[in-house]
Amino acid sequence: MTAHEQIEIELKFDVAAGRPIPDLTALPGVASASEPIEENLDATYFDTENLDLADNRITLRRRTGGHDEGWHLKRPAGAGGRRERQVPLDPDDADPATGIAHATVPAELLEPVRVHVRGRSLSPVAVIGTRRQITEARGDDGLLLAVLCADLVTARSLLPGGTGQTWSEWEFELVGENGGDTDLLGPAEELLRGAGATTASSASKLARTIGAMPGHRSTKPLPAKPTALELVITELSRHRDQLVEWDPAVRADADDAVHQMRVATRRLRSVLRAFDSVLGGAARDTIGDELKELASVLGVARDAEVTAQRYAELLADENASDALRAALVDEQNRRYRRGLRVAVTGMNSARYFALLDAIDEYLVDPVAGPDAERPAKKALRDAVDASRRSVRKAQRRLAKHDRDTEEWTEQMHTVRKKAKRLRYIAEAGATLGISRHKQVGATAKKIQSLLGDANDATLSRELLAEVATTLSSPTDAFVLGRLDAREEERHAEALRRYDAIADDL
């Protein structure tokens, strides 16, 4: 089945049954309004037993009737909108006696929410029938700008103890590229409220049907004087949310998604390690180990992605043969695709879902360490100082080795990793609204980046040497030599810049 996706931006209001809608031509830019178009819609909503989708403001339904009947997945999008993905119906996936859908949810809709559903099953949680009258608002050129849906809703919760209810509501939905012209929202709200509309009692039909929505597991604001434990849980929650946000993007092979998800795993692990006296329990160490493994799995695809981009840029102005481009760029792109498939397979595993569950459980019920009740600012100061000392110690050991030897390279990796951890810890100061660690974090980031650049250039030269043994063209050999010289200079320049800031910590 083919999925279709769009941005939905709408206003929702409660209204008395039978209330006449206002004249939409009173809205700026609206030249005409259609006669009401009537549709009868019947929808079955799905969720897990724990309402994991509703908990994350996501709805999944199978709807019959209307111009857009099918499976619909709605997820939060920017600027208060919703991202809606649709898949056509399979006509044989409902019980003919009850009309309630029972078929497997289409993979195109399940994959984007797998990070929330995990290994749990989906089942019907509500059935909602809507008698809808649609009024279309069009501009001077006849272009559809928005629709006003006057809905009479009959709903029944399928949860234990659930009941039925009926109500009326208006939905004013924009139509157009990227969700439509948001300048219409303000005048539309004023017009509809003037016609008798009131603030909607629930965010969605499903929310009203099943009752109060579960508390969304998002980052909560810190109190005025937070403890170390409150700071750490806030930081872990923030990075957990980032991991969860990038999961569907990785599955969809979105640009930079693997990188961002990998960063989120590393940030989580850095916080766990840096504040080990604030947190306790075996779960902390288990989560840290599993995050390390996840970052490693994502790293295969990420490294290949970076290498492919690197060689594409290096070859942009070179007279390279198709064979050389294939050996350098195409092969790395193939390696990326293989790595991505392995990563997504891992992200569909019970092990990955167990990690996500463990993080969620630990955030709800963390094990407090001996420093849990210390003031957050003091705990952060000590963590930054300890991490900075660790970087300096690693730098002193690095200086004892001859540059580019095996021992130097291994120690360089240590410095780079420790600098990255220092950067992530220092950046937690922004959560507390303090800037005293900002410069330390910025310097650590530069050290991490420059040593990473030096390492990337070394690895690139090794790969160029390998490719040189497989090609016989003199022209390609000349190009490879030029590339090697450029990478050698990149390596040297990165280390020169590192030397200039190495003592700034």
Automatic annotation (TrEMBL):
CDD domains: CYTH-like_Pase. Residues 225-505 form the CHAD domain. Pfam families: CHAD, CYTH. Residues 389-400 have a biased composition (Basic residues). Residues 372-388 have a biased composition (Basic and acidic residues). SMART domains: CHAD, CYTH. Residues 6-216 form the CYTH domain. Residues 66-87, 372-408 are annotated as: Disordered. This is CYTH and CHAD domain-containing protein. It comes from Williamsia herbipolensis.
